[in-house]
Design a protein that fits this description.
Elements (H helix, E strand, L loop, with lengths): L2 H16 L6 H7 L4 H7 L3 H21 L9 H18 L1 H13 L3 H4 L1 H21 L12 H18 L6 H18 L3 H15 L7
């Protein structure tokens, strides 16, 4: 196991056993038989370990869903659902630590910093599956709005994580239901709607009847 991975695992174990971060970097480094200077060559702070953990969870979830045999046959919507389910399964397996990490981040570095690395991974994935949906015609390529589709998925992920933290249902079944409903509503907005039909009709009239339209 690489030293960064070993330190990360040791950090998680400490948090789970003590309910708090190590008191100091010096003591944590000593417990792991390295110098304080060596610790800082790998991590700038304990918070940077948390950031790496969250990014790693997203990277692992993406890797796992893409390894599925049926992945290539999935629609953009199905790929989004698959990632959301897969990512939340990973969080469920580490719920005690995840709960601590979120609470600690709110008090110290803020959630935007905690999710920085994870968001980069998520946005690359989202941009990929959205582009596939646009090219296949599954999603509507709306001027000025299509570029924001990935942002809508990111907001949806934040909602799901927050919902899961408050979910008391057996097996967190309500969270699975929230994922399904949320992704379906979001993708319904991405797809063609009567408003798009009206917009296209307006452009047709403007082009063929001499009527000037305000768009």
């Amino acid at each position: 196991m690489e030293i960064k991975d070993r330190l990360q695992e040791s950090y998680i174990e400490h948090v789970l056993h003590h309910g708090e971060q190590p008191k100091t970097v010096y003591l944590f480094a000593k417990e792991n038989e390295i110098s304080e200077e060596e610790f800082y060559s790998y991590f700038g702070s304990f918070e940077s370990i948390d950031i790496r953990i969250w990014k790693g969870l997203m990277t692992e979830a993406i890797r796992e869903v893409k390894s599925q045999e049926v992945w290539a046959a999935y629609s953009s919507r199905e790929k989004a659902l698959s990632l959301f389910y897969g990512f939340m399964e990973l969080l469920k397996s580490k719920r005690s630590f995840i709960t601590f990490s979120l609470r600690n981040a709110r008090n110290k570095i803020g959630l935007s910093n905690l999710f920085e690395g994870m968001k980069q991974e998520f946005e690359l994935f989202s941009a990929e599956i959205i582009q596939e949906g646009l090219e296949s015609g599954e999603l509507t390529d709306r001027p000025f709005f299509a570029g924001k589709y990935k942002d809508a998925l990111w907001v949806q992920l934040g909602f799901v994580i927050n919902f899961w933290l408050k979910d008391t249902s057996a097996g967190f079944d309500k969270t699975d239901e929230a994922i399904e409903k949320g992704i379906n509503v979001t993708y319904n907005l991405f797809e063609r709607s009567p408003i798009d039909e009206l917009f296209e009709y307006g452009k047709f009239l403007a082009k063929n009847s001499g009527i000037k339209m305000p768009f």
